[in-house]
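@here heads up, posting the sequence + SMILES for the adenosine-5'-diphosphate run so it's all in one place. Ping me if the SMILES looks off, I pulled it from an old spreadsheet.
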Amino acid sequence: MTMLLNIEEIDVRYGRNHAVKDVSLNIADGEIVTVLGANGAGKSSLLKAIQGTVKSTNGSIIFKGENINRWSAPKRVQSGLVMVPEGRQIFISMTVEENLLMGAYSRKNVDVTNEIETIFERFPNLKERRNMSAAVLSGGEQQMLAISRALLARPTVIMLDEPSLGLSPILVKQLFELIKEINSEGLSILLVEQNTHMALQYADRGYVLELGNIVASGTPADLLADEKLAKAYLGGD
Amino acid sequence: MVAVAFTLTIGMLNFLNFTIPALFMVAAMITWAATAAGLHWLVGASIGMFVSIIASLIIERFTYRYMKAKYGDATEHALPLVSSLGFLIIFEHVVIMIWGTDPMSFDSPFAHAQFKIGGIIFGIPQLISLGLSILLVFGLSLLLKRTRLGRALRSIAEKPDTATLMGVDVGRIVPVVFMMTGFLCALAGILFTINYKNVSPYIGDHVATNAIAGMVIGGLGNIWGAIAGGLIIGMVEVLSIHFWGADIIKVPVWGLMLLILVFRPAGLFGHTQIGKGKF
Ligand SMILES: Nc1ncnc2c1ncn2[C@@H]1O[C@H](COP(=O)(O)OP(=O)(O)O)[C@@H](O)[C@H]1O
Ligand SMILES: [Mg+2]
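bot reply: prediction finished. Complex structure tokens:
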């Protein structure tokens, strides 16, 4: 199987804090891969290292067959590796539509009017508020906006950092359905979650991260079958 | 206009750039010196403008960028502030070394163009300055609102890390802010020279205090606020000179600023607090 994204033995350090230790991980074309782990396990640091917003000190990151270790984050975005950060991070000083335009920033001089209209058809709530400050959106709407914004960069891999955080169960369900939908449209997905239940229900494979180390990986069935894991990291239920 | 320049760097980069008054002064002095040396005042002004923009880029290289590379997020530190203060002092002294400390008079090409409304004298150059400022601000706000570059600048101002995730190359856009800063300062310096017909190495200090007051009154990090603040300061100055004389003009200006700080800490048009919550 050829891998779309291949992370080999990378490390992230913040001074003496060794946040990601020798982590290897891969994603095949069209896969949904989830990374699970408690707070502080190093999940966000791992995503940031892949995106290039923090430096990985060792190892290599191979994307579409190219070593992108030395690429800047904007260059990685341009090549189709796009992250939706923890906490959505929409621009509240901009309108909903301007947020979407920012999503297409990396695609220079491309007219995205039609793509934006398509997104508005998918999310009528966003359409209604297209010229309002994005600050007026609810948590669920903000998450939809953050994901739509990322989609406008035309990614091949989209990395989501705890997208379900702070959403009600109904919205979480909708969110995962959306993730499945964009996956079926051809995008590969790297999903960081603490909602292990839902993540394992939708993912093709998963990794468990503990204090910067990968302590388990496999199919959802494998991970759920491991009793020790199930108790310690997967909520036990 | 100096208030706008301040606002631009503080709003965009969370960085109180003390080289702004220096750029202003350098541009004014160069305009004067070149004109005094027999060049056309427009040529002098162009040289002043050019030097100011280049100097601003050099400053970016050595304050903002250097500190950022060395200490991670430069905005977390007082260092760029201190180093930009250093630049201010260096610039002042270089200018003093070259031209001395005496105020120099400038033969304005528009010296006698003025008229009166209700006892207050308006010079044509002053009106042109005002018109130019408004035009510039209008252009600037259009740029920020409507263009791709403008959105990139605003995204950096609000969330630089997220801007990077959109593919904005922050390291390449920050110099643009400094170039705009240099341009605004120089323009302000040139207009000042033409208006007041009189320059000295210390004019930067006077203007800086007013600009900071204007910025605080308008609301930190808000360019529309800074314009309004600048205009309010200008009006307060003109009116208080008219009614109370020139000696005490600092009193109403700073009094107004303090009042506003007490009652609306975020400024008249501000929506963010200093530093906190913006990034
Ligand atoms: N910018 C940073 N500077 C220093 N330490 C950090 C920074 N970001 C994260 N850390 C540390 O790295 C470890 C992993 O954090 P993080 O990647 O955010 O974990 P997670 O996303 O799994 O909660 C934690 O110990 C955290 O305190
Ligand atoms: Mg995290």
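MO: The mean pLDDT of chain A is 92.
MO: One more: The beta strands of chain A are 3-14, 17-28, 32-36, 60-63, 66-67, 81-84, 157-161, 188-193, 205-210, 213-218.
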